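Moderator note: this is an archived Q&A kept for reference. The question asked for a predicted structure of one protein chain; the sequence and the answer are reproduced below.
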Amino acid sequence: TTGNAIGFAYELYEKGILTRQETDGLELTYGNHAAMIELIKKIGRREGIGDVLAEGVMRAARMIGKGAESYAIHVKGMEPPAYEPRGAKCLGFNYATSNIGASHGYGYAPQEVFGSPIPRQVDRFAEEENADIVIFNQNTRAMRELGICCSFASLWGWIPTLLDKLLLAATGIDRCAEPGYLQLVGERIVNMERAFNVRNGFRRADDTLPRRILEEPLHTKGAPGEGQMIRHLDAFLDRYYALRGWTPDGVPSSQKLEQLGLGFVARDMP
């Protein structure tokens, strides 16, 4: 969030939306690393412009006004990490559908980043045809982050069948070794999170990406991905929701929740 907030402030300064007076005298020009260090201190101490940026780009943009919202890159209030969603679209669609916003940690896509063949290899520029991969990654990540293992370390050989054996040995719970059981655990987590969000007003309209990701093409200076955008978000969501067993508005169906043993969650839904 800090890095995004600083980049956001620099772009607003470049566009004339933030003035030097509003930045406490800091000249936020690209290449001025000393000003970046000062902004970090101000954000940490909530001093001057730092008090605004400490709110994150979504709230800061509302406070600044003057069209700043157009430059605030976030999903559900969370700023994205270093991965460019137009060049790694499983990660991009994960940002859109993640229950916590634009987090690479929520549904990390090793198939795109490292060429992992589990559960299958992907074309990183494909769109709705990779909905199953986004779901697999989200379920797998949710399961691992219960405390089973380090999610990053587990990318290097900690395949599901190995985790099955480790958990069976550690817990003595026979079901851990059943094919697909750990994916089911992750699926239950994702559905409970989604139900919580739905109860608090989240719907399909919140599963989106910043306008610039959807409308501005990627420029790579000759590297792969030139001209890429997220072009088929609606088609992806239709496919994703159908595979999840959710309604077209992104709400877990009562049948899906009952199937997952989450009937008590279904009864608490609006």
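Archived answer notes: The CA atoms of residues 22 and 48 lie 8 Å apart.
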